[in-house]
UniProtKB/TrEMBL annotation:
This is Beta-xylosidase. GO terms for biological process: xylan catabolic process. It comes from Echinicola vietnamensis (strain DSM 17526 / LMG 23754 / KMM 6221). GO terms for molecular function: carbohydrate binding; hydrolase activity, hydrolyzing O-glycosyl compounds. It comes from the Bacteria. The chain holds residues 8 to 319 of 451 of the full protein. Belongs to the glycosyl hydrolase 43 family.
Length: 312
């Protein structure tokens, strides 16, 4: 009888735990997943990798022309809500730059603010000249309407937006360094000068910032090229713009050889998840990636336990 009771307890525990099936999206390439919980669903806003032909952009480089959003209530069945924003619809953007890199989305007062990098109309398509714009919707799946101009005072990629418990919003982004700044309540303009978040390892590219708050601690998490390819690292602090103490590695370099990684961390149904990407479906070309998710755990002292990617 005791044994039967234990089996029941274990079964009910296992049955209530949510597991992802990786990669999450299987009919197109996706990268840079930014996940957000709305009600009992997760919405994921990834980049949409395609392959650039020689006559359309920079061959063998990142090539992204639009964004889709996907949602799920169990991490295994995903609904593709279709295209939420295309490069030709960005009033200030270069419609042939193919540079709709990593985005982020957040809800405030019933509106959804979608932050995305793009090249302005005057910019080259060779990696310089990125800035960040905002598109606004009344529903997490859009339709999203882009603002006429990008955010003044921001140059770079990989936007991440965070709203603290006191209502103050912050924008983080990267351009060689990781930057942070307060946002005005309208979520469309900076409210102060950007600061460089400096207390991270000196050497190697750092990008893709993602801020997490848990138990009054701020976790600045980011991909970093410490060796050959990007691994996910984090630093902890007691305020949103630092100072931060470097703590360690969340995920080692990709076992599939993908040069980039890019992530988000959310609580969902009583546990935390790390969303990230590898190039599972394109082992020979790491600019065609696939988004994934795995459970993430905090240690009793608040540090993050390293996540091992579940492989297929
Ligand atoms: O997806 C294009 C770029 O690759 C992102 O902006 C970076 O974070 C890296 O994942």
């Amino acid at each position: 009888n005791k044994c039967y009771r234990w089996i029941l307890i274990l079964f009910s525990f296992y049955g209530s735990t949510v597991h992802a099936q990786n990669p999450l999206v299987r009919d197109q390439f996706t990268a840079d997943p930014s996940a957000m919980v709305v009600g009992d669903r997760i919405y994921v806003y990834p980049s949409h990798d395609i392959y650039c032909e020689e006559n359309n952009g920079r061959e063998n480089w990142f090539c992204m022309q639009d964004y889709h959003v996907f949602s799920s209530d169990n991490l295994t069945e995903w609904t593709d809500h279709g295209v939420i924003l295309s490069q030709e619809n960005v009033p200030w953007g270069n419609p042939s730059a193919n540079s709709m890199w990593a985005p982020d989305c957040i809800e405030r007062n019933g509106k959804y603010y979608f932050y995305f990098p793009d090249h302005g109309q005057e910019s080259s398509i060779n990696g310089k000249g990125f800035t960040i714009g905002v598109a606004v919707a009344n529903h997490p799946a859009g339709p999203f309407v882009p603002q006429d101009q990008p955010i003044e005072g921001v140059k770079g990629i990989d936007p991440n937006v965070f709203i603290d418990d006191d209502g103050q919003a912050y924008l983080y982004w990267s351009q060689e360094h990781i930057y942070g700044a307060k946002l005005k309540d309208n979520m469309l303009e900076l409210a102060g000068d950007p600061v460089i978040l400096k207390e991270l390892p000196d050497q190697g590219l750092k990008e893709g910032p993602y801020m997490v708050k848990r138990n009054d601690t701020y976790y600045l998490t980011y991909p970093h090229v410490a060796n050959k390819t990007e691994r996910l690292e984090y630093a902890m602090g007691s305020s949103p713009l630092g100072p931060f103490d470097f703590k360690g590695v969340i995920m080692d370099e990709s076992p599939t050889g993908c040069w980039t990684n890019h992530h988000s961390i959310i609580p969902f149904k009583g546990q935390h998840f790390l969303f990230y990407h590898h190039n599972d479906y394109s082992p020979g070309f790491d600019k065609n990636r696939s988004i994934r998710a795995d459970s993430l755990f905090f240690e009793a002292n608040g540090e993050i336990r390293k996540v091992q990617p579940t492989l297929r």
